[in-house]
Amino acid sequence: MENVLVVGATGTTGKKIVKLLKTSQYFEPIAMVRNEHQQVEFLAHDVKTVIGDLEKDVLHTVKNIDKVVFAAGSGGKKVKAVDQDGAIKMIDASMTGKIKKFVMLSSMGADQPEKSEVLQDYLQAKHNADEHLKSSNLNYAIVRPGSLTNNAGQGKIKLAKSLNEQGEITRDDVAQTLVRALHDDAANKVTFEIIKGDALIGKAFETIS
């Protein structure tokens, strides 16, 4: 079993990732939370936690960790501090901690943030974090979903390094994709986009692995 640190574990997508990892035969989730109050929910489900704040030092959070999923987001409130600088801090800590794989939840449009009128600051922050990860010595997968929905997941997606089309995808299917990307045989040192589609998630990875 590999210990996987879930950064952003208290978020909507983060909670889904933790749940999937908890039922996995390969991974043990470690939920990163900001305070003891947030620990309660995870401990009630026998999920280990570590207290860490992306606006502070995070080096201690990667102790005894094998892989990292970064699914944190500020919801537009602290874009630079969390989505950009927090992610960069986590990447640097992961390099120091010799993390085996870093899976980043990014966003479609992060490759060309200047093209967005509404989300430019957010996409620029994601872009900068993604570029920092690419230039690190870490093995990584950068996952860029379309618009997120709270519909029930289908377990099917459309995946490509560049889709050249807009679309939406359920948080369920994003969480499943992120967990699949943690495996050693899937998506190594690659960036790809996902929206809802017809290919089973495991099968979709074969186009980039």
UniProtKB/TrEMBL annotation:
NAD(P)-binding domain mapped to chain residues: 8-184
Listed InterPro entries: NAD(P)-bd_dom, NAD(P)-bd_dom_sf
A Pfam family that the UniProt record links to this protein: NAD_binding_10
Name used for this protein in its record: SDR family oxidoreductase
Organism annotation: Psychroserpens burtonensis
